[in-house]
Amino acid sequence: GENVGLHLPTLSVQEGDNSIINCAYSNSASDYFIWYKQESGKGPQFIIDIRSNMDKRQGQRVTVLLNKTVKHLSLQIAATQPGDSAVYFCAENIGGGGGADGLTFGKGTHLIIQP
Amino acid sequence: DAGITQSPRHKVTETGTPVTLRCHQTENHRYMYWYRQDPGHGLRLIHYSYGVKDTDKGEVSDGYSVSRSKTEDFLLTLESATSSQTSVYFCAISERAGGTNSPLHFGNGTRLTVT
After folding, report:
1. A24 CB near a chain B CB, below 8 Å?
2. Which pLDDT belongs to residue A97?
């Protein structure tokens, strides 16, 4: 595939169970965070975002939690389905003032859904 | 796919030859970006554009140039391709500057192999 799965940590989950994918970010000044999903052969797909003035945000079957004290971000996927198998990675805005070079991407976690 | 088309999807070229990758969007977004994705690295910004004929360098711009003559098209050129430029290239668009509370939306990538 065209993702970077060969060098990524892997999380294996049973279908129907909940998944939690973690991301440690680098800069305490980061104020905006995004989670992406990338399937083999495709580009990253936006899942959900969160601003630093929030601790939690929910979408459809997904929840993002932000812990600014320990600079930790997590993505929870409820009732995982085979279609959730992909690489997931977070991005943070470390620029503060905006601009394209303020966005830094993590390397990702490969989520595998077992039948 | 957020109305983003990248062409070609695959290309094999020889060292020293020029290569141009094209990104076309139908969303009329102001900001456009070129990233590369390699094993062991997150997405890395090559160049970006904040308007017609307005471009700037990213983290890994050496060996690359860009042009944006129309809102909808953003071209990435490798003047003289090298093997280190073998990668998957992604174009992205955004309504506002990436990282200022506005996610990037990506195309499906171009796999470039330099032999």
Report:
1. no
2. 46
Residue A95: closest C-alpha in chain B: B99
Q: In sequence order, which residues have a C-beta less than 8 Å from that of residue B101 and are 6 or more positions away? A: A32, A49, A51
Asked if residue B103 lies in contact with residue B3, where contact means CB atoms within 8 angstroms, the answer is: no
B2 is written with which tokens?
Answer: 């957020």
Question: d(Cα A60, Cα A83) in Å, to the nearest integer?
Answer: 14
Which residues of A fall within a CB distance of 8 Å from B41? 4, 107
Q: Residue B100's pLDDT is what?
A: 64
Measure in Å the smallest separation between the Cα of B100 and chain A Cα atoms. Answer: 5
A48: closest CA of chain B, how far (Å)? 9
pLDDT band at A2 (very low <50, low <70, confident <90, very high): very low
pLDDT reported for residue A28: 87
Contact A104 B42 (CB under 8 A): yes
Query: Could B90 and A105 be called an inter-chain contact, meaning their C-beta atoms sit closer than 8 Å?
Result: no
Q: Rounded to the nearest 5°, which phi and psi values hold at A97?
A: -95, 10
Q: Phi and psi (nearest 5°) for A83?
A: -70, -10
